[in-house]
Each structure stands twice: as C-alpha cells, then as structure tokens.
Vacuolar protein-sorting-associated protein 25
Amino acid sequence: MSSSAPYTPAEPFEFPARHSWPPFFSAQPTLQSRQAQLSRWSTLIQRYCRHYRLYNLTLVDALDTPLFHNATLKKRLSLADAKAIIEHMASAAGDNRAEWVSSEKSAAWIWWRKPEEWADLIAGWVEETGQKGVVLTLYELVEGEATMNQEFYGMDTRILRRALDTLVKKGKAQVFGTEDQQGVKFF
C-alpha cells in the first residue's frame, strides 16, 4: 500500500438488500442462479472496495469483515466460496475485475477500476491541470496536495505503476528514477 493512512469515508457503506438474504451466502445449485449470484457478488465487492478505497483483499482477513460476514444473519462466506467468487471475477466472464496476487490464491487485486481505467483518469487530470511536460514524482501523484480531491489520491503505488505502464506503452508518459524516487513525465 502507499504510505498514507487507511481511507475512512464520511459515510458507512450501504449494503444492498440482497446482502441480508441468507441464500446470498450459499452457493446456488443451478448454473443460471449461480452465475447471477457470482455477478452480484462481483458488483458488491467492487462497490465495497471502491467505497473504502481497497485495492486488494486478503481472503482470510476479509472473511471477518462485514463484506463477507453478515453478523445480523449469522451468515458468512466460506473461504472456498470467497475463492470461487474471486476466481469468477478474475475470469473473462467476470470482466477480469480481480487478479490473484500469488499462486496460493490467498489474496487478490480487486479492479474496481482496471489499470487502463486508472490510466485514463490520471491522463485526464494531467490534461485538465496543464501537467503535460511537467515531471511529477509518483508520491506527488498519490499523496500530493494537488491530487487530494482526485479518486486516485492515496492509491497503492503498485497500482499506480501498472496504470502508468499503460500510459508508457501508449507513448503518453515516461517513468524514470530509482525505486524509491520515481518520477513521471506526461506527453
């Protein structure tokens, strides 16, 4: 993660009504119902992560959060079901909205914005603020005063690098410097 403190939104996350429906926490038996359930979980996970600006989930830890555990219902997803949902999210059927961090499949990136979408957002900010041709440190992009009101403020620097790599491949940016002092110039 970046060096900033965890993001705390002003308002608590509002769960959809289906999160209070006991069958939502159990794998559905028919293929059509299961596909719909996986899609709904994917949307919920993306919305939850976006609200709290979470970029990855460690599944064992996430099982104890309100996302996967409805204390009122006394229902929680099993680790196997959580992995199945993330596996769906990591597939083409799940729009590649997740990516396993390692082969153990214990943690995953959650792409509530894919790196390409982050790249477009950052490039738009660069254009709007006249930052083309200016060298910015990666720290300035995700921790600087100029970006405090941007959605990418506080972004995990590993995600920032993936987004910037997208811009580099398009010839819209150049990243340079050492690991702890990297800068980027936008074209």
Observations:
- The beta strands are 56-58, 69-70, 75-76, 98-100, 107-110, 135-137, 173-178, 181-186.
- The chain has a mean pLDDT of 94.
